[in-house]
Automatic annotation (TrEMBL):
Species of origin: Ewingella americana (strain ATCC 33852 / DSM 4580 / CCUG 14506 / JCM 5911 / LMG 7869 / NCTC 12157 / CDC 1468-78)
Pfam families referenced in this protein's UniProt entry, alphabetically: Prenyltransf
CDD domains per record: Cis_IPPS (cd00475)
Catalyzed chemical reaction(s): 8 isopentenyl diphosphate + (2E,6E)-farnesyl diphosphate = di-trans,octa-cis-undecaprenyl diphosphate + 8 diphosphate
Gene3D superfamilies: Decaprenyl diphosphate synthase-like (3.40.1180.10)
Superkingdom to which the source organism belongs: Bacteria
One CC-aspect GO term: cytosol
UniProt keyword Iron, yes or no: no
Matches recorded under HAMAP family: ISPT
The protein, known as: Ditrans,polycis-undecaprenyl-diphosphate synthase ((2E,6E)-farnesyl-diphosphate specific)
Amino acid sequence: MSLEKQQISDAPCAMPRHVAIIMDGNGRWAKLQGKMRVFGHKAGVKSVRKAVSFAANHQLNALTLYAFSSENWNRPAQEVSALMELFVRALDSEVKSLHKHNVRLKIIGDVSRFSARLQERIRRSETLTENNDGLTLNIAANYGGRWDIIQGVKKLASQVEAGSLQVEQITEEALNSTICMSELAPVDLVIRTGGEHRISNFLLWQIAYAELYFTDVLWPDFDENTFEGALNAFAQRERRFGGTTPIGANAS
């Protein structure tokens, strides 16, 4: 592990503070094994453990994982039910280890649609880890980027209606304060596994200037080497944040 840290620290660009991952390919991985899709989701939990361990060991500030989108309710009922049960079991089995390793767990998304049982697991897990100051692990569940922005706009509209906010005071900073993960650094790097090249309604506000990294690796096969490859690719990027190429560099 120390060798991996040295390789990355020697790169010409700083490490990302906040990495977000679209965990894609569980179903296709299971199909290649001749098994049902839920088998792939279960296998994907092992990759989550690897990713969290890697992020914590490399001292990232935050890791956000796209576990269940607001559009995933359209999947077959049997698969959705299996995913919900897997979520409950994962919270039960992993939260103590997360707490032991000083990881703060946050669930972002509209959890009101989940069962009371799952909502209680979420509350219990977040409460247990809320004072940890190591890696912040965000699990996006029943989350959509458009939903996130809309719920933020509604909060501002409520403030305007109550008279505590003037329309002229609605700024980028004001809206940002109502969006999920506003207390964290913006996402620096988005990784998507599974070979698809799209964002899929994930963190639309938070990834405005993020670097994108796509890999054909299916999520259950995602490991420390894949993660390190993404960080090494990030280290080679020139981040301009809307500015121009520095003097002496090749313009694109």
